[in-house]
Amino acid sequence: MLSGGKRYITNANVADLFTVMARTNPDEPGGKGVSAFIVPRDTPGLSVGKPEKKMGQQGAHICDVNFDNARVPSEMMIAGEGEGFKVAMSVLDKGRLHISSVCTGMMDRLISEMVTYAMEREQFGKPIMQHQLIQAMIADSQAEAYAARCMILDAARKRDAGEPVTMLASCCKMFASEAVGRVADRAVQVFGGAGYVSDYGVERFFRDARIFRLYEGTTQIQQIIIARELSRAAKRGEI
User: Fold this and answer.
1) Measured distance CA(239)–CA(232) in Å, rounded
2) Cα(217)–Cα(169) distance, rounded to whole angstroms?
3) Model pLDDT for residues 107-140, shown as the tens digit of each residue
4) Which residues constitute the domain of residue 140?
5) Residue 76 has pLDDT above 90, yes or no
6) Smallest Cα–Cα separation from 207: which of 123, 106, 89, 119?
7) What is the 3-state composition of the chain as percent helix, strand, coil, each rounded to the nearest 5?
8) In this structure, are 68 and 117 located in the same domain?
9) In angstroms, rounded to a whole number, what is the distance separating the alpha carbons of residues 58 and 51?
10) Same domain, 206 and 120
11) Measured distance CA(112)–CA(14) in Å, rounded
């Protein structure tokens, strides 16, 4: 029987299946007593709340998912009992690389928007692309996008080769999610007043980019993971 709830589940209002982490052994400390389950939407006792109103990413709804003595048979368990935390961590490494890639894609789009606008918009008799401070903001954005892409490709290759990438995935997530926020902010600045109105769409990217620093683990969680993994490596004599 599952009882409890989880807030802010993406697209919960249209999902047919839910992956649920639940404590099945209260005597085991931390993640050791947690198991993972597949729970169909039509399970009695499972309910989904209304979509929340959000700052951005309006195309992806988030809702609360609640369980009131929902009966879930043991055959719906993923892996074995007590393996839920490991399942979650393996998914998080991949998820963090995915989010990092999405951030890089958004940076590419924003850079394209900035360059196009700066080539067309004129001030003082010339395109603003010829003004050095505009060039600096665009150049900084391109450098950060390139750095993020290199980090992600390196980590993804290592993951495909079967190497552990928990620290690398956190590095990618932390850097890319922070970088896309800076690029989005620069884009609004390059567009000037036009960047603050909805006609050009840059303000939407600005709002959409903010959540990347929150889901799949906040920036602060990534910092903790990176420091923890470095400490473990030092204890093993690898640093």
Assistant:
1) 9
2) 11
3) 999 999 999 999 999 999 999 999 999 999 999 9
4) 84-235
5) yes
6) 106
7) 55, 15, 25
8) no
9) 10
10) yes
11) 33
109 with 211, same domain? yes
From CA 147, how far away is CA 190, in angstroms rounded?
21
Q: Tokens standing for 165?
A: 């990438």
C-alpha closest to that of 115 among 125, 129, 104: 129
Domain match, 23 and 88 both = no
How many other β-carbons are positioned within 10 Å of the β-carbon of residue 80? 11
The last residue of a domain, from among 78, 94, 128:
78
What whole-number distance in Å separates Cα of residue 146 and Cα of residue 127?
A: 25
Contact 226, 167 (CB under 8 A): yes
Q: pLDDT digit string (tens) for 209-223?
A: 999 999 999 999 999
Give the whole-angstrom CA distance, residue 169 versus residue 72: 33
As given in the structure block, the two tokens for residue 196 are: 């603050």
Q: pLDDT per residue over 82-109, tens digit each? A: 999 888 888 899 999 999 999 999 999 9
Q: CA-based angle 128:198:205, to the nearest 5?
A: 80
The Cα-based distances of 163 to 7, 21, 87, 167 in angstroms read 32, 25, 16, 11
Task: Quote the number of domains for the chain.
Answer: 2
Measured between alpha carbons, how far is 184 from 57 in angstroms, rounded to an integer? Answer: 14
Per-residue pLDDT at 91: 87
SS3 63: strand
CATH number at residue 152: 1.20.140.10
SS3 72: coil
Average pLDDT over residues 33-59: 95
Out of 75, 81, 216, 238, pick the active-site residue. Answer: 216
Active site residue 144: no
